[in-house]
Amino acid sequence: MTDLVIANGTVVLPEGTTTADILIKGEKIKAIVDPGTGTGDRVIDAKGKIVLPGGVDPHVHLLVGFMGQRSVYDFESGGIAALRGGTTSIVDFALQRRGKSMLAGLAHRRKQADPVVTVDYGLHLIATDVNEETLRELAGLRAAGVSSLKVYTVYEEDGLKLEDGQLYRLMQQAAKDDLMIVLHAENAGIVENLRAEAIAKGHTEPRWHALTRPPISEIEAVSRAILFSEDTGCGVHILHLVAKGALPLVEAARKRGLKITAETCTHYLALTDEALEREDGHNFILSPPLRDADNQAALWQALAGGVLSAVTSDEVSYSAAAKALGLPSFADVANGAPGIEIRLPMLYTLGVDQGRISLDQFARLTSTWPADIFGIGDRKGRIAPGYDADIAILNPERRQVISPDSDYGDIGYNPYSGIEVTGMIDTTVLRGRVVVEDGEFLGEAGQGRFLERGTSVRPVL
To answer: Which of 88, 284, 291, 293 could form a disulfide with 390 if both were Cys (CB 3.0 to 4.6 A apart)?
Structure first.
């Protein structure tokens, strides 16, 4: 007998979109059958709705402290926000503190997350200290289900930056131990010099955040990473790519068969640098910064053409009060913005509903390709027999104007306020269990599981 049937929906399958019933037994998808033929203990009628593989967001910062501020969301509340928005799997970050063990950083993060996490999750390990002892830990990380190392090329003041020599040596060993690099790509020298010059001249308004992080700072760092990848054989995933000048570099590298992928984020597709000129412009300070409309159009073209392989949230839920504490200088405002809950509805609205990408592309960018790249594509990211029954049901008839009240929890602002989305998530299923219905969370703390991740499978361009 089937436990749950999702009936009559427009189902986005790996082979294409069709009308079908999904049969779920326990935690797994049992079968895909003709519409109206499925029977089970519970039937959800999804007629007129779009049935998607549960979202996979591989770039999320929950329970994070940065630039003196703390996020609103932890692994419980942030997971609920993700589920309300149709995301069922995330990859967050564990931090290796300088002078400390990588494995200790992983153990600490799991201790924080496991008792309360509400969504299935994996972890990138943020590498901040590369030496012979920590390099020997890479094999242990891989055995523990961590297959990616996060590297910052900026933020020395926060103890995060790796120098080129450290990065290169890390990539040499990571290639041997089957780990990849996920890279925050900005040239620290360019950023730090321009920022110091601006502050010295009294240029502290939010727009100077973007002006002191020009596109070349990102383009150069992406180019460097590709060169290092080619020489070491270590795969690299470029996080939050926004500078359009970096897109041809990624495309050329992929066409040469290098182990390179890249993502962009919801905020770069929905907002431009004009937001930095607003009265509340400090709320839009994030790194790399927002760019202009022409740059945004190039990102959409890269998504449609497959050059970019994922759209992530880069979720950082600093409250409105926390963001304001950095004023009056852009240099002191905590970088980042919330977005884990609105990622799927926003991309559906701007992408599918407005004709920029197809429904099949939407599912690949928000679920299938991220699952493959980050080593969970054998059980997540697809609606197919044998896969985890992670499902998001999107109602294209539900419209909502975004406001601060749209978020789960009290963040106090929403960077997408005033934008009307033309499709919202009605129902989210996590491993066969309905955990969100009409915005109401039906699960409990600790229901999420740690995802031990395998080898990256990169989409072919």
So the answer is: 88
Of 85, 90, 53, the residue nearest 363 (C-alpha) = 53
Q: Are 250 and 307 in contact (CB under 8 A)?
A: yes
Indicate if the pLDDT at residue 159 is higher than 80: yes
| Widest pairwise Cα distance in the chain | 72
Cβ-proximal residues to 409 (8 Å cutoff; 6+ apart), any chain: 72, 73, 77, 81, 317
Given a contact cutoff of 8 angstroms between Cβ atoms, the answer to whether 179 and 141 are in contact is yes
The number of CA neighbours under 13 Å toward the Cβ of 25 is 10
- Which tokens is 325 given? 């504490």
β-partners of residue 265 are 312
The token duo for 210 is 């973007």
Residues in the chain: 461
pLDDT in tens, 228-267: 999 999 999 999 999 999 999 999 999 999 999 999 999 9
Residue 218: which of 154, 158, 277 has the closest Cα? 154
Name the amino acid, one letter, at 163: E
Contact 365, 310 (CB under 8 A): yes
Nearest Cα residue to 339 out of 396, 286, 276: 286
Assess contact for 368 and 52: CB atoms under 8 A: no
* Pick from 180, 179, 186: nearest CA to 213: 186
CA distances from 330 to 119, 184, 265, 427 (A): 34, 20, 21, 39
